[in-house]
Amino acid sequence: MHAAHHAGRHRARLRASPGRLVRLRDGRAVVVRSARPADGAAVQRFVRELSPLARRRRFFGALSELSPAQLDRLVGAQGPRALSLVALSANEGEPRIVAMAQYAHDESEAAEFAVVVADAWQRQGLGARLLELLLERAAVAGVRVMNGFALAENGPMLDLAAKLGFVAAEDRDPDLVRLERPLPPPRRVIWVAEQMRRLVARRPAAIAAPAFAAQARC
User: pLDDT of 29-72, one tens digit each?
Assistant: First the structure.
């Protein structure tokens, strides 16, 4: 009874979670939101239910489930330097995680991403939409370059990356392909730059005066 009660509370948390509704090509819908510590069991279940091929393409090995450290990295506290997005089935009874995307970066302005979609939800545009949302959030957080790796035989991932503007390059490991894409600055930065450009265009003499004055004092 205790286990059933706990499961019911877990389903309620998933169902009540706010997020962005995404409609797929076949009419199904998912809700995309940030992962949270309470999602641990659902994330582990998602990984266990992936096909061996999907797990190998995501984790580059014969992994069957996540270690405690791996799970903590995926559902731990979110912040500017790390983000995990989960996609929850929105119209199939009990909500469950059907896709995930993550990025993490160090002290530099570059970050590394990963994305994986459950087999039954592939080829519906979900991977592309998740990665687009991840790139948007990363740009706002200050990431300037998004990097990633894909197995050289992972054609679907390489095709998706190419469609979203990633450039592929050889890696030192012949089994891997390195992916890279620069990200635009946040819209706020672009807006400020545009306002400054317009100000300069309207008042060139006023903007230039301090520089001329500095030259005169030299």
Answer: 999 999 999 999 999 999 999 999 999 999 998 888 999 999 99
What does the DSSP 8-state code read for residue 26?
T
List phi, psi (to 5°) of 92.
-135, 60
3 state DSSP class of 166 = coil
Q: What is the DSSP string of 52-120?
A: HHHHHHHHSS---S--HHHHHHHHS--BTTEEEEEEEESSSSS--EEEEEEEEE-SSSEEEEEEEE-GG
Nearest-10 crossing angle of helices 2-16, 40-49: 90
Residues 101, 87: Cα–Cα separation, whole Å:
9
Could you tell me the two tokens for 184? 């635009």
Place of tokens 């998740």: 130
Question: pLDDT digit string (tens) for 106-134?
Answer: 778 899 999 999 999 999 999 999 999 99
Give the SS3 label for residue 31: strand
Q: For residues 135 and 28, give the distance between their C-alpha atoms in angstroms, rounded to a whole number.
A: 23
Residue 32: φ, ψ to 5°? -105, 130
- Listed in sequence order, the DSSP H helices in 124-186 are 126-140, 155-163
- Residue 113 phi, psi dihedral angles, 5° rounding: -115, 165
| Nearest-angstrom CA–CA distance, 160 and 166 | 9
What domains sit in the chain, N to C, each tagged with a CATH number? 2-184 (3.40.630.30)
Which of 96, 87, 99, 66 shows the shortest CA–CA distance to 21? Answer: 87
Helices 40-49, 68-75: inter-axial angle, 10-degree rounding: 110
